[in-house]
Amino acid sequence: MKKILFLSFVLATMLSCKHTEETTAADARTTVKDSTIAGADQDEHGCLASAGFTWSKMYKDCVRMFTGMQLTPVDQPNNEDETLSAYVLFSEDKSQAEVFIPNSESIILKRSKEGQPWINNDYQLVPWKGYILKKGETNLYAGDGEIGNKFSGSSDTEQ
């Protein structure tokens, strides 16, 4: 009788160890899947960077800044790397312009009346042969003024 109890105990122990290993492997697969879920790159506003969205202070919504007006660096006019460009989105009435500068927070510029530059502290967006973005007296970016379509919407909605 003792042998039967001993064998039962050993068999139960072996089976429970194997079950634990299988459960651990399944948990590991689930963990890997969870960490690679699409949309895991949302910013604090819920904008999906991988889908090209960034937060707009002016629109208070997620936008694709690259659909706005592109301004290329003045010191690299023939550079085709779009990640070095600044982008501008205008408010509906064109009284404000939000400028997205690489590696920086966006800046909202305001103008007093039509035909005048948009201004915020040292920054100016001047409408001249397209547009020029200046900081102080230094021309930083320039563009022809072609504006793309603004896409907006939070990451909760499908685009």
Please describe the topology of this protein.
Blueprint (H helix, E strand, L loop, with lengths): L1 H34 L18 E3 L4 E3 L5 E5 L12 E5 L5 E5 L6 E4 L7 E3 L2 E5 L3 E5 L2 E6 L16
Brief overview:
This protein is an alpha+beta fold. 21% of the residues lie in helices and 28% in strands. The longest helix is centred in the N-terminal third of the chain and has 34 residues, at 2-35.
Secondary structure: number of strands: 10
Intertermini distance = 71 Å
- Secondary structure tally, helices: 1
Largest pleated sheet: 8 strands, antiparallel
What is the mean pLDDT? Answer: 78
Q: What's the helix-strand series?
A: HEEEEEEEEEE
Structural shape: rod-shaped
Low-confidence stretches: 19-23, 28-35, 154-159
Beta-strand percentage? 25-35%
Q: Which structural class should the secondary elements be placed in? A: alpha+beta
Computed CA radius of gyration, to the nearest angstrom:
28 Å
Strand order of the largest sheet: 6-5-4-3-10-9-8-7
Task: Give the fraction of residues assigned to helices.
Answer: 10-25%
